[in-house]
């Protein structure tokens, strides 16, 4: 009966059967529980919405993840521009940790597909409020167990029919 909860159930019901999308939900949920990582997502997400900034993030991600290219790029110049310095420092750290590197690549991909971008934004919003975060974690668990998933999927339908 609560529209936002219904939207969450529908979103998670769609996301969790697809392994890559399920990984995104689990990753985002975990990342939002660690303050420093949450700050990085909050920093990175807006960058990926602005085409020029997204292009820079994608370019820097590529440059910094390939050792030969990283060695050849002018790090001193990149570090002399404040906004680029923030991106380089953040991305260098993120790309040095395999799980975080996977997150950057996943986020960049997700934000390039409109429907997935909308879901990512919804999830990021949901995970920023403790009560909603608890709901996402609970639903993620419920939807990963077939019998419980059947109940979760059936309940919104049952609750929408007055009789």
Structure description:
This protein has 163 residues and is an all-alpha fold. It has one domain. Helices cover 87% and strands 0% of the residues. It has eleven helices and no strands. It is elongated. The chain crosses the membrane at residues 39-65, 77-97, 103-127, 134-159.
Keywords:
163 residues; mainly alpha; 11 helices; 87% helix
Residue fraction in strands: under 5%
> Main sheet, how many strands, which sense, barrel?
none
Terminal Cα separation, in Å? Answer: 14 Å
Number of strands: 0
Number of helices: 11
Poorly predicted runs: none
**Count of domain modules:** 1
Question: What is the 3D shape?
Answer: elongated
Question: Roughly how much helix do the residues carry, as a percent range?
Answer: over 70%
Radius of gyration: 18 Å
Structural class, judged by helices and strands? mainly alpha
What are the secondary-structure elements, in order, as H or E? HHHHHHHHHHH
Mean pLDDT: 66
Keywords: Membrane, Transmembrane, Transmembrane helix
Transmembrane segments: 39-65, 77-97, 103-127, 134-159
Question: How does the SSE layout of this entry go?
Answer:
Layout: H1 3-15, H2 19-31, H3 35-49, H4 51-65, H5 67-72, H6 75-80, H7 82-96, H8 98-110, H9 114-128, H10 130-144, H11 146-160
Summarize the structure.
By secondary structure, the chain is an all-alpha fold. It has helices spanning about 5-15, 20-30, 35-50, 50-65, 65-70, 75-80, 80-95, 100-110, 115-130, 130-145, 145-160.
């Amino acid at each position: 009966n609560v529209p936002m909860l219904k939207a969450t159930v529908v979103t998670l019901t769609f996301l969790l059967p697809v392994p890559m999308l399920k990984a995104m939900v689990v990753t985002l949920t975990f990342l939002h529980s660690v303050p420093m990582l949450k700050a990085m997502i909050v920093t990175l997400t807006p960058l990926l919405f602005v085409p020029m900034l997204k292009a820079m993030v994608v370019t820097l991600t590529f440059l910094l993840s390939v050792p030969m290219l990283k060695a050849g790029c002018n790090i001193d110049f990149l570090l002399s521009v404040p906004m680029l310095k923030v991106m380089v420092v953040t991305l260098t750290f993120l790309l040095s940790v395999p799980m975080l590197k996977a997150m950057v690549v996943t986020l960049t991909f997700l934000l390039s597909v409109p429907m997935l971008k909308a879901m990512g934004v919804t999830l990021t919003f949901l995970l920023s409020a403790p009560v909603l975060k608890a709901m996402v974690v609970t639903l993620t668990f419920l939807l990963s167990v077939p019998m419980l998933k059947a109940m979760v999927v059936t309940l919104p339908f049952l609750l929408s029919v007055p009789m």
